[in-house]
From TrEMBL:
This is DnaJ heat shock protein family (Hsp40) member C8. Coiled coil: none annotated. Residues 163-204 have a biased composition (Basic and acidic residues). Residues 212-221 have a biased composition (Basic residues). InterPro entries: DnaJ_domain (IPR001623), DNAJC8 (IPR042858), J_dom_sf (IPR036869). It comes from Nothobranchius furzeri (Turquoise killifish). The lineage of its organism: Eukaryota, Metazoa, Chordata, Craniata, Vertebrata.
Length: 234
């Protein structure tokens, strides 16, 4: 997590040499274990931690070490490790994503520096020695590392929460859309059935009226009074 000579968050030239020296003895299995160790889902959120952001040659060397073709005895884990390396490297090639990672690391460093100052301030107030364990560069580096991992983890948790919320909102909007469409369909079907039944009712009424008139006409013909013959006078 040491600051780079040009940009915070990137390994310095001295750290690069240390990393290269350390990793020159790491085998494919050791690199895969490093990338898939317990808690790696959060450790690997820091792309600098995954790739060390050293040189393209070093990156390709790392990618070859964990490539499934080179680890045919454990292809599944090798594939996962390779994807982690590839994702982190591509992320660092994007200026905005790289800047975001650098900002997180810088925030972690500034937080630790602030806490160290607060410790020294309190010790001075208490009249004690202002020496703290973080004065040791390695202890300070570890403190920054832990704080940086915490920040990356918090950001990832927030991202997942936003993603879950957005998914819930999209699901609810979709359900409302489907409900609206189904209601509109039911309304159209009801209107169609109503109009069809109305036409049927009108036709039935007309038929009823027509039959009624016919019966009335026939009734009238049957109810005509008989003609009365005049009786002849005797």
């Amino acid at each position: 997590m040491a600051a780079a000579g040009g940009e915070p968050g990137e390994p310095s030239s001295q750290n690069v040499k240390q990393i290269e020296k350390r990793d020159s003895v790491l085998t494919s299995k050791q690199q895969i274990d490093r990338l898939l160790r317990p808690g790696s889902s959060y450790f690997n959120l820091n792309p600098f931690e995954v790739t060390y952001w050293i040189t393209n040659v070093s990156f390709f060397y790392l990618s070859i070490l964990v490539h499934p073709d080179k680890n045919q005895d454990d292809p599944d884990r090798a594939q996962k490790a390779f994807e982690v390396v590839d994702k982190s490297y591509k992320l660092l090639l994007e200026p905005e994503q790289k800047k975001r990672a650098v900002d997180v690391i810088q925030a972690g460093k500034e937080y630790v520096e602030h806490m160290v100052k607060q410790k020294k301030k309190q010790l001075k107030k208490d009249g004690k020695s202002q020496d703290v364990e973080e004065d040791d560069p390695e202890v300070f580096r570890q403190a920054v590392y832990k704080q940086t991992m915490k920040l990356f983890a918090e950001l990832e948790i927030k991202r997942k929460e936003r993603e879950a919320k957005d998914m819930h909102e999209r699901k609810r909007a979709r359900e409302e859309e489907i409900e609206t469409a189904e209601k509109a369909k039911r309304d159209r079907e009801w209107q169609k059935n109503f109009e069809e039944s109305r036409d049927g009712r009108v036709d039935s009424w007309r038929t009823f009226q027509s039959k009624g008139k016919s019966k009335e006409k026939k009734s009238r013909s049957f109810l005509k009074p008989p003609k009365v013959k005049m009786e002849q006078r005797e």
